[in-house]
């Protein structure tokens, strides 16, 4: 408990101390300035940070103020105010109501499909049993005795129904992974086929057996067996259409994230556009690095600054002609924009230098922190029971020694919004429990991982929108382009067909591998 209190006090002390130091420095500086300069300095230096409920490790101002910070920014230039409030606009209310309506519609559609499939499945399994039991109930005295062959058919029907039940459960009754905008065509066709098939069997059974009260009970049982056999063949057809048909790669899709241009390639089989979109999203969460909008802030601000250029004023009035001066000013602005690549080069070089420096400090701090803990063996646990700690307590004990270095590194690399203090402590205790090295602990923070690695609430998009010029139920074709949109970015998917490869064969006789040594006077051989 004391370790946890030390951790929280150490962690929150950075901002508290820096805020007081900045306030005292500002008051001393403002005593010697006029009221106008005092107000101007306050308007330029004040920073408001809106902290989310999960209390991330770092403030949200890092993406705005990081470029102008030196290595000692923690002691001099941090200001935190408690003015964050949650607000909602009329557009947000309309969007929330629309999302609720869409979710209600999707739930109704999902449950309607499940209800229809469950009712049809129950009808399929009860039909063979009803074919066998109805003659026994309605005209049992008129039936011919069931011999050995007829009784053996009972066992056949029972085992075939059991196999069909297990196969249907494995193929159809699975937890849905997503809600698609349109029905799955092949699954709908299979349901229609099964309904027509069972309906035709019932029609034939009612006309030829129920109306005439057929006394050949063995033939009736054989008729039920034929129904079960046909249902098994339909189940095999469902496996081919739903599972095996899409396994062979036919298309290659390129997925590009619209904001930063990160791309991946995947191979797909014969799928519809909506099912291909599901495959793309499943692979996106495990293959693409997490989307970090803070990395785009610096480039956008730099582009806006250079697009502003120089302003041109007509100082001689609207009636005078100052075209020569205007052309000179425009040329100067063009030269300034042409030199922007130098500024970009030095900015990136300075950022890389700062990242490397803080990364080295973080690695050293973590390695030193891990040297203070030791796993006790079974015989050592009996000697000093009062000094033992569980992994959570050990993590809270060593975390303050590395917290500041980790804080600075995450701010420099703009990852602070994805790592809260609680998530770091959980990861640290996990590494201690599994006897992992400092390098294994730092892997999550030094290298941006896939999207699934981070907290679900920070990246998960509840709804994606599929935009396509073609019908989403149509199959993939060469040149098809569709877009998957979420709130912050979109995924552009371009489909290309794998080309036909013509492979020829050429035979080489092993006896033809003969060589002659060619000697020259200049060689050393």
- The helix fraction, in percent, is 55-70%
Strand order of the largest sheet: 2-1-5-4-3
The rough form would be described as elongated
- Residues in β-strands, percent: 5-15%
The gyration radius over C-alpha positions equals 36 Å
Mean pLDDT: 74
The string of secondary-structure elements, in order, is: HHHHHHHHEEHHHHHHHHHEEE
Low-confidence stretches: 1-94
The main pleated sheet reads as: 5 strands, antiparallel
Q: What would you call the quaternary organization?
A: single chain
Query: What is the number of E strands?
Result: 5
Distance between the termini: 81 Å
State the helix count. 17
**Secondary structure category:** mainly alpha
Summarize the helices and strands and which ones pair or pack.
Blueprint: H1 2-30, H2 35-45, H3 62-65, H4 73-76, H5 90-138, H6 148-171, H7 185-210, H8 217-244, E1 251-257, E2 263-268, H9 273-287, H10 297-308, H11 323-338, H12 340-370, H13 378-381, H14 391-412, H15 421-433, H16 438-446, H17 456-459, E3 465-468, E4 481-485, E5 490-497
Antiparallel strand pairs: 1-2, 1-5, 3-4, 4-5
Helix pairs in contact: 1-14, 5-7, 5-8, 6-8, 7-8, 12-14, 12-16, 14-15
């Amino acid at each position: 408990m004391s370790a946890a209190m030390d951790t929280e006090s150490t962690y929150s002390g950075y901002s508290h101390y820096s805020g007081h130091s900045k306030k005292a420095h500002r008051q001393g500086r403002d005593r010697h300035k006029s009221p106008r300069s005092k107000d101007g300095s306050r308007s330029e230096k004040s920073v408001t940070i809106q902290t989310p409920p999960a209390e991330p490790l770092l403030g949200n101002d890092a993406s705005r103020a990081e470029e102008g910070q030196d290595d000692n920014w923690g002691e001099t230039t941090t200001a935190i105010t408690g003015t964050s409030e949650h607000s909602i606009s009329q557009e947000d209310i309309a969007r929330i109501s629309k999302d609720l309506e869409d979710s209600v519609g999707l739930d109704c559609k999902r449950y309607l499909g499940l209800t229809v499939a469950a009712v049809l499945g129950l009808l399929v399994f009860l039909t063979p049993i009803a074919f066998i039991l109805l003659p026994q109930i309605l005209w049992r005295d008129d039936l011919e005795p069931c011999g050995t062959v007829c009784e053996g058919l009972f066992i056949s029907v029972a085992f075939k129904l059991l196999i069909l039940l297990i196969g249907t459960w494995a193929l159809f009754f699975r937890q849905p992974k997503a809600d698609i905008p349109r029905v799955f065509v092949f699954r709908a066709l299979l349901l229609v086929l099964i309904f027509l098939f069972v309906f035709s069997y019932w029609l034939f059974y009612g006309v030829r057996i129920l109306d005439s009260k057929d006394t050949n009970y063995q033939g009736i049982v054989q008729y039920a067996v034929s129904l079960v056999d046909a249902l098994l063949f339909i189940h095999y057809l469902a496996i081919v259409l739903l599972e095996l048909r899409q396994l062979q790669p036919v298309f290659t899709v390129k997925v590009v994230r619209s904001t930063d241009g990160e791309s991946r390639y995947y191979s797909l089989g014969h799928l519809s556009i909506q099912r291909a979109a599901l495959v793309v999203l499943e692979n996106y969460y495990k293959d693409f690095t997490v989307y970090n909008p803070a990395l785009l802030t610096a480039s956008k601000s730099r582009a806006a600054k250079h697009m502003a250029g120089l302003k041109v004023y007509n100082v001689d009035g609207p009636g005078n002609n100052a075209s020569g001066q205007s052309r000179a000013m425009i040329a100067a602005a063009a030269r300034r924009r042409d030199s922007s690549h130098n500024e970009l080069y030095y900015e990136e070089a300075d950022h890389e230098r700062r990242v490397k420096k803080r990364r080295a400090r973080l690695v050293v701090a973590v390695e030193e922190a891990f040297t203070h803990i030791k796993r006790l063996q079974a015989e050592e646990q009996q000697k000093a029971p009062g000094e033992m700690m569980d992994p959570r307590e050990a993590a809270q004990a060593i975390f303050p020694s590395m917290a500041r270095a980790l804080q600075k590194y995450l701010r420099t690399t703009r990852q602070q919004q994805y790592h809260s203090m609680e998530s770091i402590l959980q990861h640290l205790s996990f590494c201690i429990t599994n006897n992992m090295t400092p390098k294994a602990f730092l892997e999550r923070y030094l290298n941006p991982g896939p999207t699934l690695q981070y907290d679900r609430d920070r990246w998960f998009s509840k709804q994606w929108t599929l935009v396509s010029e073609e019908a989403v139920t149509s199959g993939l074709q060469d040149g098809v382009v569709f877009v998957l949109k979420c709130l912050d970015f979109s995924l552009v998917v371009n489909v290309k067909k794998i080309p036909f490869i013509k492979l020829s064969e050429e035979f080489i006789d092993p006896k033809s591998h003969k060589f002659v040594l060619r000697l020259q006077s200049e060689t050393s051989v």
